[in-house]
Write a structure and sequence with these properties.
- The complex is a heterodimer of chains A (424) and B (164).
- Chain A contains twelve helices and 17 strands.
- Chain A has 424 residues and is α+β, with helices and mostly antiparallel strands.
- Chain A has a domain at 132-179 and 274-415: 2-Layer Sandwich (Aldehyde Oxidoreductase, domain 4), CATH 3.30.365.
- In chain A, strands 3-5-1-13-10-11-12 form a seven-stranded mixed beta sheet, sandwiched between helices.
- In chain A, strand 15 (278-286) and strand 16 form a beta hairpin.
- Chain A is globular.
- Chain B has five helices and five strands; from the N terminus they run E-E-H-E-E-E-H-H-H-H.
- Classes of the chains: A alpha+beta (424), B alpha+beta (164).
Chain lengths: 424, 164
């Protein structure tokens, strides 16, 4: 192999030295003189119409500069990476933690005091905390389009017919939990006006998309908005969504002063996206030799109050439902459903880890039913060169999963002595 | 509220301040002394991002009130490199790929520093225990533990050479 300067070598991170010295400037470390502190009033009910917001007591507090509500949004009050369904400041609450009012104050203490004095009248609506209630025909609609956001289907062959005749059929239901990314740096940003351009420095994974949504919500042309990603203390998919960006932009353009907003841990937990909880009904058929014949899966993903990356997560779940195995007959439905739960969005693996749990559990159960080892069960079905995936893609280049399986098995035998003694 | 007269040593320098006694040591370091290498992750002693060394012991600076640091010696991440030369732990963290987003890194390095100051030949278990109060969400800890092992072996080699 030729001697390259970089390829094949372990190179040091470009930002490594500053990070080990503690010199890197994350958002909370940026010191901008004259900066106002922003805080959001979040709903303590899950589903309600906002009838009245009374800020009369708050405006009298010295140091409170301005309170913003949905009426102050200059552009289109809806953002979102795939579906623009999330208001920056809402007049309809769809989860506990929805943003209702934004306070700009001279310091954090005043801003926190102000939040307690804002009075909101709600017309409460029945909250929906699970996907099954949301799917009922007479369920209250969380969004005007209804509670089913998307349905993704993958159909190949005749799964139903094969399932009815197969020698071994395993059918189980699986549920997975909501998970918070819990990056050690919470969301935060600063914004200011520079030469007539709104500049937002933010802890984000998605500056280009942020810019588009901020311009939309604020009614600004794209060339008047600049988003700069600050050194970001972890994201794992959770910082792909808008968090503080629209709040910062709104206050900065309306007040003409630099503004700052950093979520504390509680707000980061309450307000931002999670991993989708999945509800999976999984049926697998195999022949006596352990060869998979058919898979039928129904997946319901709880995307919570707003779409975020939900539709893409459920497409990914459907695509990966058969795992790294070849199955000729496939019948997969994946529903992305709104509830009044916290928002679910992108998180490491994007729907795939949930499906791996279900699919691999099925493989173990099939192996048990057939009396063959779990690793052998996988060997007999693993994707290889020439295999066709559930979506009909022919794997005509190299496929590494077989080698990965053997390497993992070898490692397992090393670290778990005795594992290979029986039935393997 | 009456201000508190705070005298302490931070990274070897004497500091004299009159502060609100309700401030946390973390606030004094970050907001008054502008030593922002000390991070706030949770504000309740769970994550260890705000770790500093107080009189030789690792503490969460979000759980220490400023007056409690009076008369004490504080070391932050900014006080680890000596004369522009990275500490062996800082070098090892870079070398092992133990730094990703970097937000836990200052606390991790300080936790490991306290360990190595007391025990220059730690076992893998002792290393794990020493950083058990510090959460990292990127690395899965493997590289961090490797980095501490690298630093420990360098220190041992150097000590061996010094005694030779």
């Amino acid at each position: 192999m030729p001697d390259y300067s970089t390829i094949g070598k372990s190179i040091q991170r470009i930002d490594g030295i500053d990070k080990v010295l503690g010199k890197s400037q994350y958002i909370a470390d940026i010191d901008l003189p004259g900066t106002l502190c922003l805080k959001v009033l979040r709903s303590d009910v899950a589903h309600a119409l906002v009838k009245k917001i009374d800020v009369s007591e708050v405006e009298r507090i010295p140091g409170v500069v301005r309170i913003f509500t949905h009426v102050d949004i200059p552009g289109i009050n809806g953002y979102g990476i795939i579906v623009k369904d999330q208001p920056a400041l809402t007049d309809k609450v769809r989860f506990k933690g929805d943003a209702i009012a934004l306070v700009a104050a001279e310091n954090e203490e005043i801003a926190k005091r102000a939040l307690k004095l804002i009075k909101v009248d709600f017309e409460k609506l029945p909250p929906i905390y699970d996907v099954w209630t949301a799917l009922k025909e007479d369920a209250p609609a969380i969004h005007s389009r209804g509670n089913i956001l998307t349905v993704s289907k993958i159909k190949k062959g005749d799964a139903e017919a094969v399932l009815n005749q197969a020698e071994v059929v395993v059918s189980r239901s699986y549920t997975t939990q909501r998970v918070e990314h819990c990056y050690i740096e919470t969301e935060g940003g600063v914004a200011y006006i520079e030469n007539g351009i709104l500049v937002i420095k933010v802890s984000t994974q998605n500056p280009h998309y942020d810019r588009r949504d901020v311009a939309r919500v604020l009614g600004l042309p794209m060339n008047k908005v600049r988003v700069i990603q600050a050194t970001t203390g972890g994201g794992f998919g959770g910082k792909l969504d808008i968090s503080v960006q629209c709040f910062l932009g709104l206050a900065a353009i309306k007040l003409g002063r630099p503004v700052r907003m950093v979520y504390d841990r509680q707000e980061s937990f309450v307000a931002t996206g999670k991993r989708h909880p999945f509800f999976i009904d999984y049926t697998t058929a195999a022949n006596k030799e352990g060869k998979l014949l058919a898979v039928k899966v129904k997946i319901v993903g709880d995307t919570g109050a707003y779409a975020s990356y939900g539709p893409a997560t459920l497409v990914r779940a459907a695509v990966h439902a058969t795992g790294p195995y070849e199955v000729l007959n496939v019948d997969i439905d994946a529903l992305c459903v709104y509830t009044n739960n916290p928002i679910s969005g992108a998180m490491r693996g994007f729907g795939t880890p949930q499906m791996a749990f279900a699919c691999e559990s099925q493989m173990d159960l099939l192996a048990e039913a057939l009396g063959i080892s779990p690793v052998e069960m996988r060997r007999r079905n693993i994707l290889q060169q020439g295999s066709i995936t559930a979506t009909g893609q022919k794997m005509n280049k190299s496929v590494g999963i077989g080698k990965t399986l053997e390497a993992a098995w070898e490692k397992a035998l090393q670290v778990m002595p005795g594992l290979g003694d029986e039935r393997r | 509220m009456a201000e508190f007269h705070l005298e302490m040593k931070v990274n070897g320098k004497p500091i004299v301040l009159d502060v609100d006694p309700g401030l946390r040591l973390l606030d004094v370091l970050r907001d008054i002394l502008h030593l922002t290498g000390t991070k706030e992750g949770c504000g309740e002693g769970e994550c260890g991002a705000c770790s500093v060394i107080l009189n030789g012991k690792l503490v969460d600076s979000c759980l220490v009130l400023a007056p409690q640091a009076n008369g004490q010696e504080v070391i932050t991440i900014e006080g680890i490199a000596q004369n522009g030369e990275l500490d062996s732990l800082q070098k090892a963290f870079l070398e092992a790929g133990a730094v990703q987003c970097g937000y836990c890194t200052p606390g991790m390095i300080l936790a490991a520093k306290v360990l190595l100051d007391h025990n220059s030949t730690p076992s893998r278990l002792e290393i794990s225990k020493s950083i058990s109060g510090n959460i990292c969400r990127c690395t899965g800890y493997t590289k961090i533990i490797q980095a501490v092992e690298i630093a420990a072996s360098r220190i041992a080699t150097k000590e061996g050479a010094d005694h030779a």
